[in-house]
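Response to reviewer comment R2.3. The reviewers asked that we include at least one raw input/output pair. We reproduce the pair for C2 domain-containing protein here without editing.
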Amino acid sequence: TFTDMAAPQLTSRVEIIVSCKNLPDRDVMSKSDPMCVLFMKTPTSTHEFGRTECIQNTLNPQFNHKFQVDFCFEERQVVIFRLYDVDSSRAALQDHDFLGELETTVGELVSRRQYEAALTKTGSTKKSLIILTCLELQECKLIANFRVEGVKLDKKDFFGKSDPFLEIYQPMDEIQTESEVPRVRSWVLVHRTEFIKKNLNPKWAPFSIPLNRLCRGNRQLLLRFDCHDYDSDGSHDFIGSFYSSLESLEQEVARSRSAQRTLISKKKKSAGTIVFSQIGIETIDSFVDFIQGGTELHFTVAIDFTGSNGDPRDPRSLHHVSADGRPNQYELAIISVGEIVQDYDSDKQFPGLGFGALLPPMFSGVQDAFSLTLQPENPYCAGMPGLLAAYRSCIRAVRLYGPTNFSPVINHVASMAAAHQTGAQYFVLLIITDGIITDFEKTKQAIIKASSLPMSIIIVGVGDEDFSAMEELDSDDKRLRCGSMIAERDSFLCVASFRVAALIAAGMPWRRRYWRSFRIRCASG
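Raw output as returned:
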């Protein structure tokens, strides 16, 4: 037999962009507030992959959030797009009105590039459409940083000033001049800024866009910039637009320190000026770059030994160690994350911690951060087998108690990360728990302090407890705050429920001075 080690893997990453037309209206006094949720369907289960943002008061949403999916040529990857009318801030989908769905495959989307189909199960007689644009992402480490402002924008509100926001679109066709615009089949939303209230000279927050998303890596591609006046009912007023390539804007900023473009209204008149005070192209190092450059991951596990887990001798306990060797939910979480991280830890020596238990021999005084080996001077376990063995031995020796305090174990690992800030070491803390955090405010403070360190925190919830309160700690949309403290970055991920075959996507953004962002993905079971 012969194995061709140089054969390429038939795998690539694609970006799926979602928009809809004519969605059902579930709100009585206004229009629906739609959100799209992507599910991955396998022969044995269906699990949520991700969600777009919610757009208020519209039946024709163009979602800014894009889904990035690994496309495997040799697999039939079934995906389901489900639309919901968001009725509250709760994360549970059953709390929102279902608008319809589409089931298809990633292969179908890739082959068509832009796919339009009717939603099913809408409960409405009118035809609702979903438009899915699928683009292959070329490997690109470049990112464009923007500072943009408006000057003397047109006033659209009768009793006040406009509330402007800016949108950037890329064409589905390769065009470089405005004369080619009429032949463009469609435009895809790339980025939408926040809106600035009652201001005709807005200064939007700085933003960054990867070049492969902005212009498919082609700086000469002609982009469309639209400016609108925000209205809460979704009927945003068009202020004006213009066309420009990234290359043209870059060159003008380099020559004159800024680039100015005139917004053209529907009446073909000037509607104000958009000023680009900064356009900087930056190279982002990847996870592979750092690992190959010598960066090591240091993996620590912290396990919840509080009484709410149940008596380990009871088969119903989350800590029950079965005689036939079947892993419990705690062990599944350790294995699923640990098997990924251990490949990047050269010595394979993992500190194992516990919290919320009474320790032998006295069983007096709750320990908030103790070693699974029950040897404070030697908390290290030899590889995954050693970590699992230490856990099984510990669960038989300690007494489950409480409370569920996270801050001590976070501060423990943070102290190690604080001593290694050269960029050569990165620390990953996995906390596995069954319950609600007792020291929530102290945990927020600990996470914020750790956000400036080379450290990421993953919390995996096991059992059937309600973990929705932990979502506040996962600052994907805005940085975590506690009083006057603000996190430097999002260093935290909460997996609200751990199940076999669940996908754990652990974001590990790196401090700007030394590191950049990467993701770890693993499927358990």
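Helices lie at 106-112, 211-214, 246-256, 287-292, 329-341, 383-397, 407-418, 440-450. Residues 12-139 form a domain with the Immunoglobulin-like fold (CATH 2.60.40.150). Further pairs are available on request from the corresponding author.
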